[in-house]
Specification:
Strand content: 15-25%
Low-confidence stretches: none
CATH architecture: Alpha-Beta Barrel
Distance between the termini: 18 Å
Order of helices and strands: EHEHEHHEHEHEHEHEHH
Mean pLDDT: 97
Number of strands: 8
Number of helices: 10
Largest sheet: 8 strands, parallel
Shape: globular
Radius of gyration: 17 Å
Structural class: alpha/beta
CATH superfamily: Metal-dependent hydrolases
Strand order of the largest sheet: 1-2-3-4-5-6-7-8
């Protein structure tokens, strides 16, 4: 049984064929897809998808760049919306820091810290975006009380990988690992008990010029299996166990 802990099936690229995408996921033995909201509209669509499809689980949040487009009142309104729907969600995401497209670090950090506090208050796991901000994210989280932390699409260096493992936090690995030396290295450096699988659909496809989708998580499993030199069924079993330990306990 396979899991995709980070996807965006509310993306417009899935508007015309989402039912078929879900069917392919099921046929490929995917049992859970965590859809991550990125802004107010996306959060509401995510809840709708989770209500419509049993296989989809909702995670709500504000993607750092989207959050910067909102004023303080709008941000607080969305955080209140997430609080009101906390019983319907499995995690907070997509949250974090992104220094590639914005240097407004102070406001980003303030928003991220609000979500960290929210996760602490409601004992929710977080799935973290950390583009070009990996060191700041790790430092912030080391000062938190959170235990269930997943680093989505992590691109930090070996030292940060070790710091994350020292805290027994997790990395989710996308299918682009089939052609990414960085993700292959990340898997080789990380205990399999700290790994999860994701797709970031519709992004990070294992296939050139092809939209990513949850069924492709099988490619991540194959790569992890090869790197760790264990059989695919055992790899699937361990990843599923990791998923349950974070999101179902």
């Amino acid at each position: 049984m396979l899991v995709d802990v980070h996807a965006h099936l509310d993306d417009k690229s899935f508007n015309s064929d989402l039912d078929k995408v879900i069917e392919r996921s099921k046929k490929n033995n995917v049992v859970s897809i965590i859809n991550c909201g990125i802004n107010p509209e996306s959060n509401r669509k995510t809840l709708e998808l989770a209500n419509k499809y049993k296989i989809i689980k909702a995670a709500l949040g504000l993607y750092p760049i989207d959050a910067l487009k909102l004023n303080n009142e709008e941000i607080q309104k969305e955080i209140e919306f997430i609080k009101q729907n906390k019983e319907k969600i499995i995690a907070l995401s997509e949250i974090g820091l992104d220094y590639k497209f914005s240097k407004e670090n102070k406001k980003q950090k303030e928003i991220f810290l609000e979500f960290v506090s929210l996760a602490e208050k409601f004992s929710l796991p977080i799935i973290v975006h950390s583009r070009y901000a990996e060191k700041d994210i790790v430092t912030i989280l080391e000062s938190s009380k959170l235990k269930k932390i997943v680093f989505h699409c992590f691109n930090g260096d070996k030292n940060l990988i070790k710091r994350i493992q020292d805290h027994n936090w997790f990395f989710s690995i996308p299918p682009i690992i089939v052609r990414s030396e960085h993700f292959q290295f990340l898997v080789s450096e990380t205990d399999i008990n700290n790994l999860l699988t994701e797709t970031d659909s519709p992004y990070l496809s294992p296939y050139f010029n092809k939209r990513n989708e949850p069924s492709f998580v099988k490619e991540t499993i194959k790569s992890i299996s090869e790197i760790k030199k264990i059989k695919i069924p055992e790899t699937e079993e361990i990843i599923l166990k990791n998923y349950k330990n974070i999101f179902l306990k």
